[in-house]
Amino acid sequence: MTDVKKMIGQVFEEIADGIESGSFGKKAVVAVTTLGSEHGVENVVKGAELAQKKDPSIEVRLIGPKVETSLKQYEANTDEEGYKVMEELLDSGEIGACVTMHYNFPIGVSTVGRTVTPAFAREMYVATTTGTSSAHRIEAMVKNGIYGLIAAKTAGVKRPSLGILNVDGANQVERAFNQLKENGFDFDFAESHRADGGVKMRGNDVLQGTPDVLVTDTLTGNILMKMFSSFTTGGGFEAHGYGYGPGIGEDYNRTILIVSRASGYPVIANALIYAADLVKGDLGKVSKEVFKNAKAAGLDKILDSFKETKKEEKEDEEITAPAKEIVSEAIAGIDILELEDATHKLWKNGIYAESGMGCTGPVIMVSKEKIQEAKEVLKAEGYM
Coil, strand or helix: which one is 364? Predict the structure, then answer.
């Protein structure tokens, strides 16, 4: 009975949202370009028809060569024609979103994939999977997390949790999101299912879909999407998930979603449904709201700090290690990219330290007597 009441409540909430936004009773119009697939135009058309069948509340259209179908078509016989038609339809508002292959986004825009993880069949947003949020790795990953929250919120996840894949730069990204949270940016961290917990996601967290939004660098995200989508088919036919997702960036106004040339018709269908979710949820509106809140919490200042390199030691100043001591205590939470600099900073402050790699990531080893002093130095220098 409780579930029924909950469902009824959700229905009324959706109706109210639709009336407020002016979208109630309207179909989300989405399109797909049919050229470029390794599996042929027929595969894309089959995916489009499947999406229309699965969700009658949307209207699916095709951009490409004329084919036998009941779906509305816009003729385009080359990739270039297809992109031109797609952009014109998006800019005019005739379609709300479009799924395509191999589209060049400007720097600052990258795509948020959506997949179904194998362990518990949980949906997870992978931020990001194609495109380049920034030329600076850490700045890019912070932006990727913002983009992931935007995509998940727009697609209907009321309060998405955010986890950071345990890759190079993860600690710096975690510090950035902690700063945003402390400054009032409202979101939830995911908690690793590993015994030691934390916001950094390990391999089993990825398989289990522990976070709603998984933050990573784009190249790793691309590989994860490929693995999730085609691990049962050997890689040549992507059969699972919703594709590589929408290009998101500050002030970017087109809702264009990417699929791979290897994407099979099930992924094409899901990508169109993902596109419709973004149209219904008003991606542009959500994006503006999230960016506004993030900037109010100091996002720009935090991103600028990554572009400032640590003060370099004078060329004629040689840093040597203090007298060697027995190092039995480990300090975790130092990013691998900053490990050597952090160790040298301790040396400069008269603390003997050694860098190392524990089972959960990089560590700095110091003596039991110096651990508290070492932590204070590292915190003061911005390494923790």
Answer: strand
Lowest mean pLDDT among 45-49, 63-67, 220-224, 370-374: 370-374
Q: How far is Cα 262 from Cα 34, in angstroms, rounded to an integer?
A: 13
Strand order in the sheet with 329-332: 329-332, 361-366, 354-358
- Strands 361-366 and 329-332, sheet pairing: antiparallel
pLDDT tens per residue, range 217-246: 999 999 999 999 999 998 899 999 999 999
Domain covering 310-380, topology: Alpha-Beta Plaits (3.30.70)
Q: Which CATH architecture has domain 2-305?
A: 3-Layer(aba) Sandwich (3.40)
Collapsing DSSP to helix, strand or coil, 315 comes out as: coil
The whole-angstrom distance between residue 310's C-alpha and the CA centroid of its chain comes to 28
Asked if residues 142 and 304 have their Cβ atoms less than 8 Å apart, the reply is no
- Name residue 330's amino acid: A
* Catalytic residue list: 359
- The CA distance from 201 to 325, in Å, is 34
Domain extent listing, the chain: 2-305, 310-380
Using CA atoms, how far residue 233 sits from 99, 209, 226, 346, in Å, is 22, 21, 11, 51
Between 283-296 and 137-154, two packed helices, what is the crossing angle to 10 degrees? 130
Find the range with the poorest average confidence among 5-19, 89-103, 275-289, 357-371.
5-19
Structure token digits, residue 348: 């400069």
Q: How many CA atoms lie within 13 A of 50 on its CB side?
A: 15
Half-sphere exposure of 68 toward its Cβ, with a 13 Å CA cutoff? 0
By CB neighbour count within 10 A (0-12 exposed, 13-18 middle, 19+ buried), where does 191 fall?
A: middle
Helix boundaries (H) for 31-167:
40-54, 79-92, 137-154
**DSSP, res 178:** H
Q: Name 80's Cβ contacts closer than 8 Å, sequence gap at least 6.
A: none
